[in-house]
Amino acid sequence: VPRTPPDPHSPDTWIPLVELEWPEAAAAFNACYAGYLLPVQLQPDDLRHRVVAEAIGTDLSHVVFSHGAPVGVVLVARRGRAARLAALGVAPHRRRSGLGRTMLARAVAEAVLRQDLTLELEVFESNGAALSLYEGVGFRSVDRLLGFERIADPIPDDQPLRHDEPARLAAEMATGDAALLPWQLSPETLARLPPPWTTVSQVGGSSALIDLSRKDVVQLRLIHTPPGRRGCGLARQLMGALAAEAAGRPIRAPQLIPARYEDFAHRLGFETMTLSQRRMSLTLELQ
Ligand SMILES: CC(C)(COP(=O)(O)OP(=O)(O)OC[C@H]1O[C@@H](n2cnc3c(N)ncnc32)[C@H](O)[C@@H]1OP(=O)(O)O)[C@@H](O)C(=O)NCCC(=O)NCCS
What we know:
12-stranded mixed sheet, binds coenzyme A, 8 helices, elongated, alpha+beta, single chain
């Protein structure tokens, strides 16, 4: 992939991700997300795993350098003719100088050239700068995404849990109603999540995708009950067993769960976390 020639009027140089080592790319990502709503400290392996699981194109994604230092990062993922802006960040000293808009415009123009049909993204609702940038370009909200946290039960139910690779749950979801879930919850993404992510399930019951490796929290990506078996308390039963595995740790699902599942989450004992995201989409066929 050829490097983009530097603009004679600007010292910025756009380097495709494919030409960078993971440590340099991760350091650039962290520098361009400084002061973000949540602390961002991406390790090189975290970035590599995200690229694989989310289908981020290392030829479609760039780090922008100025005088040798990273000033912008734009990550673009693609599956079929659907594209996703997986990250957009500008180093603090270069914000409000048009670089974010330029990177976004280039991502949109390249998606149009590839004849992609949509470009989607997620943005925290309290991120006013990013929201007004995206709305100004024509992105429209298609969903609200919430995060949930559940403090583990004092007396957990310890029904046995089966452990499987994430691909097992992804395959179950792919035969059902996985449409309308955000990119990071799609079966294609879930199937490529590396260890320590694992599927836990009970025989004939619900499944959940979890990471039990952290001392402070059990991370939950999603709970799934096959369509024919819903409404029978199977998800509640799984949560009881999961609470036993959690051994006092809270169980937390990040802001990727469509708001239409909020009631369901509350019934399982979860509370809604304060930050929420918007899933936004730009339709490209009309451009
Ligand atoms: C969001 C972000 C990428 C914008 O990049 P930027 O280079 O500062 O943006 P630009 O200078 O190109 O500004 C483009 C538009 O964005 C909006 N915008 C940018 N900063 C803003 C701010 N502080 N307040 C309100 N609107 C803002 C405006 O609509 C602006 O257009 P205008 O200048 O004509 O008013 C940058 O603030 C950033 O890196 N933030 C941290 C990471 C992040 O939040 N990324 C988005 C994740 S979804």
